[in-house]
Amino acid sequence: MGEQSIMSVQTLKKRFGGVVAVSDVSFEMRKGEILGLIGPNGAGKTTLLSLLTGFLRPGGGSVHFQGYDITGRKPHQIARRGLVRTFQMTTVYSNSTVEHNVLKGAHYRNDVGLWSALWGRNGTRGRKERIDREVAQVLNLFELKEWMHEDAGGLAYGHQKALGLAIALASKPSCLLLDEPAAGMNPEETRWIGDVIRKLNDRGISILLVEHDMKMVMSLCDRIVVLNYGAKIAEGSPAEIQTNDEVIKAYLGDEHVDS
Amino acid sequence: MTAKVAGSVVIGVLLIVWPLVFPEQFYINVAILILLSAVMAMALHLVMRVGYLSLAQAAFMGMGAYTSALLTTRWQMPFIVGFVSAGILTAVVGYLLGRILFRLKGVYFVLVTFALGEVVRLCFIAWDSLFGGANGITGIPKPSLLGYVFDTRLEFYYLALPLTVASLWFMCRVFLTHPGRAYEAINESENLAESTGIDTTRYKVQAFTISCFFTGIAGCLSGHYLSYVSPFAFTFWQSVDLIIMNVLGGPNVLAGPIIGAVLLVPLPELFRSAVEYQRALYGITLILIVCFLPDGIAGLAYRFRHKEGSRSDG
Q1: Which pLDDT tens digit goes with each residue over B13-66?
Q2: Is A6 helix (H, G, I), strand (E, B) or coil?
Q3: Assembly ipTM
Q4: Chain A: residues touching B (Cβ < 8 Å)
Q5: What is the DSSP secondary-structure string of A87-135?
Q6: Which of B10, B33, B22 is nearest to B157 (CA)?
Q7: Scanning every residue of chain B, which has its alpha carbon at the shortest distance from the alpha carbon of A56?
Q8: Residues B16, B18, B24, B28, CA torsion sign
């Protein structure tokens, strides 16, 4: 655990009944990197994300984030530490406007107690202005400004996925866990999402990317962790992963590996 | 904004003046029942706005009613003590139960609140020595404040009206400020809210606690109004009525439960002879509303205004 590490995962376990969904997965995530998490369908990628962010309770092992033990903490507590996930299914507040979606993402940062809120102390004026400014920035970044007063449920699929990211970003994460941000998108949209992820990373946000689009993963990620049947089978640079026998076996089957 | 203020002033003046113009006991009685039901329906509304449905509201109403009834009859406490204790005790019970109940979601939450409501009601009946069994508690004094007794129906109306308005104001503030936005987020997607740092459990328990507080004081008032409490006033059906008021009036705006109370409460009073058909009528109305007006009657008004608004916006 050097000073470079932002998240350290130790022998994380999860079983559902008889099925081992995640078995003894350990890896380190470095500050400022884009770490890919790939594996065939059912490899346990989404389960792992849910374990890291508190949506599922680990059956064993530990997760440390920026030096804090976040194992088994609640999702909102983990989010407040700066570790925020997005969801594979498009998850937005469908009945709220785009602007309010992003505001809800920033909700906890303007947290005041019930009584203060009722007496009109909605945080200091400066804080509110800062949040308004940030919301505008987030909307700009995701090119959602022109729809800011539309209901999110009426947006095109690609925009809804972008909004999902925007909500997460509004909560000011230091590390984002993205669950298939490009799923269901066309090549042009996928490229655009890739650019946005790169931009977020340039701002110093570490990113854990779960994605099936290999072109995107290989071009964006600094390092990649590969899961299969809930276990880590490889870890390394994109080039290393592309030539790793175990990985090829997992994706294509035994017969494709020479030697 | 000024139109809104002017509208509120007009409605306010009407609410204050009308009983003096139409001083018939029958109407004042109906108006009081509407006010009390409106508070309870708004209280349930709060829970519905975080996406949960409670069938235990009648039980909390009963807790408030019995608390104040016992304090003012058996222990001869003044009304104000009974009133405040009713609200606080019910809120504390709601808080403690909420901490446990909100581990459940959806149908399971509804089922457990149903069971809870029945358990509380059966306690009222079975715990004879304290709650007076099936006879309930009689001889509850009329409300009094600083020596002034709210003896007549008219006086009671002028006690219930400001309390209702205060409840409305409080809940308006909740919805329009920070907590309200959290409720909205939780209602739309609990996971998404939780994933961006919103303490969903805290807000759900908060909504439930506030709901119980207002249900408790409304229950207390109804006890003092009727001057008796009976366990048969706090059945499952009482909770269902509150749900119907919300669904009919509009489950997504605070005006909804008020509209619902105004429309539903007078029905059994106006059609005494047709009370046995009341449930059938409710059932049919509910089906029609859910099919054709999912946002209730308030939703209809909103849709109308929205159309006009977008037209004038150009």
Answers
A1: 988 888 888 888 888 999 999 999 999 999 999 999 999 999 999 999 999 999
A2: strand
A3: 0.88
A4: 53, 55, 74-76, 79-80, 84-87, 91-96, 100, 103-105, 107-112, 114, 117-118, 120, 122-123, 167-168, 170-171
A5: -SS----TTSBHHHHHHHHTGGGG---HHHHHTT--S-HHHHHHHHHHH
A6: B33
A7: B191
A8: negative
